Amino acid sequence: MKYEPPFTITGNIINLLAKISELTGKVSILHKDSISPKLRRENRIKTIHSSLAIEHNTLSLEQVTDVIDGKRVLGAPQEIKEVQNAYEAYEIMLSLNPLNIDDLLKAHSLMMSDLVHESGCFRSGGVGVFDGQKLIHAAPPAKIVPQLIGDLFAWYKQSDFHILIKSCIFHYEFEFIHPFADGNGRMGRMWHTLLLAKSICLFAYSASSSLI
Fold first, then answer.
1. How far is it, in rounded angstroms, from Cα 4 to Cα 151?
2. 29 in a structural domain
3. Neighbours of 147 (CB within 10 A)
């Protein structure tokens, strides 16, 4: 049976799509040649800081910047390692194929190196999303994760929906599958950025995670 993620296109989605498309078009034209390497780097650091803060990393933006600059920072070793790993992953992001599962695993290996035992591979056990002690989402069994991810990538490749719509659907389904033992949130945000950047280069250096 052909995989089809469950979703409904609403009038509000269409209206938002039109507005975002208009704004990205204007920004792309006005600032095509004015996004300096310095601004790109600053936005990249903001992205890393915000994405990790969502995962409860307590390092400040200044501390994250210092870690990336190779300076000594007073902080938890794991949190410093998270920053170093995320920077390495984002540094190679644009060289990755967002529709290649091996590249997804390669990015996870960098993102979660020395943080989890199963870095660079799909999880071997069950996982869930908790709100305190309350389970709010039990992910699908580990044995079917490779098939689910394969189906999701295949759907994305053949889908003719607008990139702004299908990248969001991909992100939602990715988090529903929760393919990794850990790092699903930061990987989902990075992969969403990569999917967008391959079609709309403006998104390659937008710090969208800071809005979240």
1. 9
2. no
3. 12
The span from the CA of 127 to the CA of 22, in Å, is 40
Q: What is the pTM of this model?
A: 0.91
Q: Work out the end-to-end distance of the chain between its first and last CA atoms, rounded to an integer number of angstroms.
A: 35
CA distance 186 to 112: 10
Mean pLDDT by 10 residues, the chain (212 residues): 89 95 83 73 94 96 97 96 97 96 98 96 91 87 97 96 95 97 96 92 79 74
28 in a structural domain: no
Flag whether 132 is in a domain: yes
CATH classification of the domain holding 74? 1.10.3290.10
Return all residues near 164 (Cβ < 8 A) that are at least 6 apart: 17, 20, 21, 196
Asked if 57 and 45 touch (Cβ cutoff 8 Å), the reply is: no
DSSP 3-state assignment of 136? strand
Q: Domain residues for 160?
A: 36-207
* DSSP one-letter code for 144: G
Q: How many domains does the chain have?
A: 1
Q: Would residue 44 count as lying in a domain?
A: yes
Contact between residue 207 and residue 50 where contact means Cβ atoms under 8 Å apart: yes
